[in-house]
Amino acid sequence: MPPADNSAHLQAAAARRHQDAVDRATTAIRQLDAEGKAITFRSVAATGGVSRAFLYGNEQLKSTIRNLRQQGTTTTTRVPTRERASDASKDARIRHLQEEVHRLRDRNANLEQQNAVLLGRLRSNRSASAT
Fold first, then answer.
1. Left, alpha or beta for 103 (phi > 0: left; psi -120 to 50: alpha)?
2. Global pTM?
3. CB atoms < 10 A from the CB of 44, how many?
4. Looking at the 3D structure of the chain, how many domains does it have?
5. Could you tell me the pLDDT band of residue 130, with boundaries at 50, 70 and 90?
6. pLDDT band at 74 (very low <50, low <70, confident <90, very high)
């Protein structure tokens, strides 16, 4: 009796293991992002229980990790996605800061004018007392 051909079952099991590893890595990326932690190949591998070689070998995961890693290079700790400011919030903050700059410039000009008047009085008093 010839041996049974189990290759289809082996291929199906390998495909399930591969998809399970992709799912674990994707979940790890989402978890790290939600927690505001750095997303690196090492952190995703440790969190997802997959190897770094697996991450480097999967083009989609590799590109996702590289993109998120580059986004996180500006700060040492990343802000979780749900806590990032919206565009409208950023626009409102910019408008407020522009108004504050305008107000401070007006105040600075007023103080410079007052300073010039006081300096003129001081010089006038010194010259009057010197004569």
1. alpha
2. 0.53
3. 27
4. 2
5. confident
6. very low
